[in-house]
Amino acid sequence: MMWRWQHWMVVLLVTVAAVSGNNYEGLAGHQIWSLESELAVELVDQLQAQGLLDVVAHTERTRTVRVTPEFASLVQKELHGAGHNYSVKVEDLAKHLQEKEKDEKTRQIHRAESCTATSCPFPLTYSYMTFQQMEWYLKELAKNPWVEVRSIGRSILDRDIWMVHIKSGECKGRKELYPNRCRRRASSKPMAVWLEGGIHAREWISPAVTLQLIHQITKDCCVTQDLDVYVVPMANPDGYVYSWTTDRFWRKNRRSNSGSTCDGVDLNRNWDYHFGVGASDEPCSQVYKGTKAFSEPETQALRDAMLQVASKGNLKLMIAFHSYGQVLMYPWGWTADKAPDQQDMVRLGKSFVMKAKSNYGTHYRVINAANDFYFASGSTDDWSKGVLKTKYVYTLELRDEGGHGFDLPATKILPNSMEVLAGLKAVFRKIISKKRTTNTVVL
Ligand SMILES: [Zn+2]
């Protein structure tokens, strides 16, 4: 088969450019197909590697794919030729998304929650936020004296990459929020954790959950008494904006690649730790790693801020939030070999899973990135483990297990956030109590 990614992307980009006036028109004529046979999985994954379709949701045995009008007949021929059937779930993706948006807008709860042009005091729970709304909320958040909101750099299209620091310490000045006070006194040497959201544009649930976590953790000074919590809720603002305006399933940043008609670098393949394994050097690929490690301003900004936090010597945990799959992955991604602290990472991961299940019964699995998922390098997690030597490192694939995939209904924001918060609090508690135990032994 001779078709390659760039052919697919050229056609897609021309389609996008040729129409205007509606956010989803770049997706006009695109269809969503569902393949329920386990036998079709291998062929579908091959077709994706060739750029003929895009897997937008999956389970171990099924695939849900987006097919462009240009390649629909070719893909159909390939599938039928191999004896695989499929069902068309969405006839026209642009129309489907427009209808869905209309439905959501008519809901009372959506209207009641909407941010106005001048105010967005809380992260939204029943609709996804635009990047502008996120910035409004972060500005509000910065009014809390125990929170610092700082731009750690700018994207390739000059948007800010915001980092939120929820400061450790006693509950002074905020006791009114938690009158029952914390059980212990604050430690003199708090630990630090780093949470990253939104590095992949189309995974909208990631920044949505990350913002909810910020909102909840900021209110609870007992959680952060011994912890400095650093959060970047939107690591890829350009890609995110593009996924709102033009292509709902955009993944990469918005780099214009010289010598190619295809835009974007996969920011989660651009980090400098065994750069290049399981990543593509083809600019039209969804997992294009870039011309060199840290070629992108977004990864440079994240790297520099993480180095600064880690230089204080107490960074214990890093979690990158992605979707979808409901798995908590520990490194390595670049090799099937064991990473340092594997047993400890698995054990701590299991306490997350247990607590995350208690709210709604949602099941997350603790798995190894390379052995149980796929080989990938140049990601935040491997770099954090390999270069910063962070003890506990994870990539958390949020809801769901593939039914909706990237296009998770906004009604899931709140339950997904609450279960992750429960799991995270258990993880924080364990890290802090481990430190206390360790100190006792050392002393
Ligand atoms: Zn992702």
Features:
443 residues; alpha/beta; Alpha-Beta Plaits; Aminopeptidase; 2 domains; 8-stranded mixed β-sheet; binds zinc ion
Number of strands: 12
Which regions are unreliable across 5 or more consecutive residues at pLDDT < 50?
1-22, 438-443
Structural class: alpha/beta
Shape field: globular
Helix content: 25-40%
Roughly how many Å apart are the termini?
66 Å
Mean pLDDT: 86
Give the tally of structural domains.
2
Q: Count helical runs.
A: 13
Computed over alpha carbons, the radius of gyration is: 22 Å
CATH class call of the largest domain: Alpha Beta
- Give me the CATH architecture of the largest domain, please: 3-Layer(aba) Sandwich
The CATH homology group name of the largest domain: Zn peptidases
Structural notes for this entry:
Mean pLDDT is 86; it is low at 1-22 and 438-443. The termini are far apart. The chain has 13 helices and 12 strands. Helices cover 37% and strands 16% of the residues. 44% of the residues are buried. With 443 residues, the protein is an alpha/beta fold. It folds into 2 domains: 5-103, Alpha-Beta Plaits; 119-442, Aminopeptidase. The structure holds zinc ion (ZN).
Secondary structure topology:
Layout: H1 5-18, E1 31-35, H2 41-49, E2 54-58, E3 63-67, H3 72-81, E4 87-90, H4 93-106, H5 108-113, H6 131-141, E5 147-154, E6 160-166, E7 191-197, H7 205-219, E8 227-232, H8 237-245, H9 297-310, E9 315-323, E10 327-330, H10 342-360, E11 365-368, H11 369-372, H12 380-386, E12 392-398, H13 413-442
Parallel strand pairs: 7-8, 7-9, 9-12, 10-11
Antiparallel strand pairs: 1-3, 1-4, 2-3, 5-6, 6-8, 10-12
Helix pairs in contact: 7-13, 10-13
Bound molecules: zinc ion.
